[in-house]
Specification:
By secondary structure, this protein is α+β, with helices and mostly antiparallel strands. The chain is built from four helices and five strands. The protein has a five-stranded mixed sheet with strand order 1-2-3-4-5. Helix 3 links the parallel strand 4 (84-93) and strand 5 (122-123). The radius of gyration is 16 Å and the shape is globular. The chain starts with a strand and ends in a 14-residue tail after the last helix.
Length: 153
C-alpha cells in the first residue's frame, strides 16, 4: 500500500465530495444534513484552497481521504494567550482506509506545511461519543483543551 499526500486541486472535487458525502449521510460527525451539490462543494474548495492548506491522501493512486484547515488567531482573552493556530475543519478518511496510517500521514503533511508559517498548534472539534476519533487524535499527541457540557432541563 502506497500513501501519497498532495495538495488538492479542483479536479479532485467529485471524489472528495464522495468522501465527504459518506460522513454527511452515514455519521453524526458532520454538521450538515444533506450532501452539498458538486457546484457548492467546488465553491467551498476554491474558497479554502485560495487561503489555506487543503490536502488529499491517495492510496495506490485513488483519493482515500482529505484534510482542510483554516489558520486562525486566538482572541484576546484573560485566560487565553494570544496565538496563531491551525484549525482542522475536516479530516475525512473512507472506512476502507482507516487504521492504515492515512490519517496520520495527512496530519504529518499538514504539520510540514504549517510549521514554516510559524504555526505550532493545531485545534479541532470532535464529538465526545466519537471514541475512534478521540483515540486517533490522542495517539497524535492531542489533548482536550476545553469541554462543552450540556444537560436537559
Amino acid at each position: 500500500m502506497s500513501v501519497i499526500i498532495r495538495d488538492a486541486c479542483i479536479s479532485d472535487a467529485p471524489r472528495l465530495l464522495e468522501i465527504y458525502s459518506y460522513y454527511v449521510q452515514h455519521t453524526a460527525i458532520s454538521f450538515e444534513y444533506t450532501t452539498p451539490t458538486q457546484e457548492e462543494f467546488c465553491r467551498r474548495m476554491r474558497h479554502i484552497m485560495s487561503r489555506y492548506p487543503y490536502l488529499v491522501a491517495e492510496v495506490d493512486g485513488k483519493a482515500a481521504g482529505m484534510c482542510n484547515v483554516k489558520l486562525k488567531k486566538a482572541p484576546v482573552h484573560p485566560v487565553v494567550l494570544p496565538r496563531r493556530y491551525a484549525y482542522i475543519d475536516d479530516i475525512c478518511i473512507l472506512p476502507d482506509f482507516r487504521h492504515m496510517g492515512v490519517g496520520k500521514a495527512l496530519y504529518e503533511a499538514l504539520a510540514e506545511r504549517i510549521r514554516p508559517m510559524g504555526i505550532r498548534k493545531v485545534e479541532l472539534k470532535v464529538w465526545a461519543f466519537n471514541e475512534s476519533a478521540m483515540g486517533f487524535y490522542e495517539a497524535l499527541g492531542m489533548k482536550p483543551q476545553n469541554i462543552i457540557m450540556e444537560g436537559h432541563i
